[in-house]
Amino acid sequence: MEVRPFGLWPSALAPDDLAAATRLSDLAWDADGRTLVWLEGRGPQGVLVCQGPNAAPRDLNAALSVRAKVGYGGGDFAVQRGHAYFAEQSGRLYRQALASGPAKPITPAFGYAAAPTPSPAGRHLVYVHHYENSDCLAIVDAAGSGWPQRLVAGADFYMQPAWHPSGDRLAWIEWDHPQMPWDGTRLMLGQVVRRRRGLPQLRRSELIAGDFDTAVAQPVFSPDGRSLLYTSDQRGYSQLWCRDLASGATRCLSEAPYDVAGPAWVQGRRAFSLAADSRTLYFVRSENSQRTAYRLDLHSGALDPIPALASYTHVEQIIAAPRGKGLACIASASAVPARVVAGTAEQMPVKARATTELLTADDLSTPQPVSWQAEDATRIFGLYYPPASSRFCGRGRPPLIVAVHGGPTGQIETSFEGSHQYFATRGWAVLDVDYRGSTGHGRSYMTALRTQWGLLDAADAIGGTQHLVDNGLADPERLVITGGSAGGYTVLRALTTRPGFFRAGICLYGVANLFTLAADTHKFESRYLDSMIGPLPEAAAVYRERSPVYAADQLRDPLALFQGTDDQVVPPAQAEEIVASLRRRNIPHVYHLYEGEGHGWRKPETVRAFYQACEAFLRQHVLFA
User: Fold this and answer.
1) Which of 286, 297, 306, 588 is least surrounded by Cβ atoms within 10 Å, i.e. has the fewest?
2) What is the pLDDT of residue 1?
3) 359-602 domain in CATH 3.40.50.2000?
4) pTM to 2 decimals?
């Protein structure tokens, strides 16, 4: 192999490759159990793709863009009886025949809709509606022939409505401020009353599971109508539960200490699905940073990995067909970009790919689980991506990029991480940190960050970096910390509390001013800081102490900041306060403001420019410094 300096290796993974990648986010079966529809994100456009039996895939929409925008999005579409129902980015719901014809709007143009849920007979549609900071569950005629009405109101937030197969009951998730959906939610069950004229109404409802300190999610009725399944973390892990609708008895279906459901940052997350026989349950759970797929026989209790998915380390949005034995999901691995796969549990051919998949595993980095101890002896988790190339090697220790995920209740995963592979294939090492507060390790690990945000996350990122340095896996003179959103906040906290430890930082739409975040962010997170920092005004001193903008004069390491003009979560003013301090004190920095982008990049030209700017910044301030 040819020896070249770390960080300067030629790589086959170019910025254009990442810019051209398709986002695969969800999929659904039609009632026939043979027609599959999935959602592809192509730049800023959301496109539904349909594939029927013995047919080639085809796009269902062109001019309209499929994208729900309640909170962080998700819950974009559903399929029932030959029609797709989707949320268009303007906020309206549309109905699109799978066979042919144009899409037709079925809700008026006000507010934003998400999680369209057709009734079993296909006559009505329940959905989550958001308008002027008020949320509800609404119902509309599926053909769009009448005006929608509120069905359920009174809670601050709603998620995941689900119809009983008979159409006479509805389950849903709701919660109130200041809780987030991973803190505490309520699973409700209501009686739906049909009327001779007009839309159905809800007669009464009851609390089935969940409370202020128990997070429940994803209610699903069994196809035979006898049971209601859901996830609950009442025993410390997000596990599968089943309620017998006749007797009211509940039982835990997954006793093992693993998380099934992830944090509900978006509508439409799905961690399990029941087969048409009401006996076979397919689900995924977090194990050592992997999302592994299993098949559970509810009668015998037999639990087995799903054979067709054994080669994948990250499985999401798994869904069983409403008829037959069909099964579909989005699957990937560290060296396999996301794919839509569908078939049976024994064989699932690829239906769509996020990228061209031209790189071989030899040219990509295989992440290795690592862990270290915090000062209080808590075990902290991470994934280490060593530099990878089939043609080049380096001498000495590699430079290290420490990646801090957002949330802060996100989690690292062994899916294909294009950003990590981009730098690893150029000779960088990458550490992905699951700091305290991350999900996937049980409820107590997640809640450890309450009132400690800005302290434990920064300490764990620094601790993981030091662990790699102490074990000879990283060059102590070439350490970089990077993160977006909450991860960007951790970047700024690490650089202001430990200046000089990292050679440089990269901050994407990071939080700089906690007061501003509490006042200006969107409804979904407007009370998040009550638990992560403390309620205002009582905790005002803590807000000031942990806001990087008030410690900006401590920044002395080169810093690259990236921001979207249309970011409603962390507006550009946050980054610009930091930039003003850096500029005033002549600290090396770059600031890139991308027109038309929000809280993350969707435009191919932005993705391309971002990686080019990052690489130029790192060469100047780390590799050649």
Assistant:
1) 297
2) 87
3) no
4) 0.94
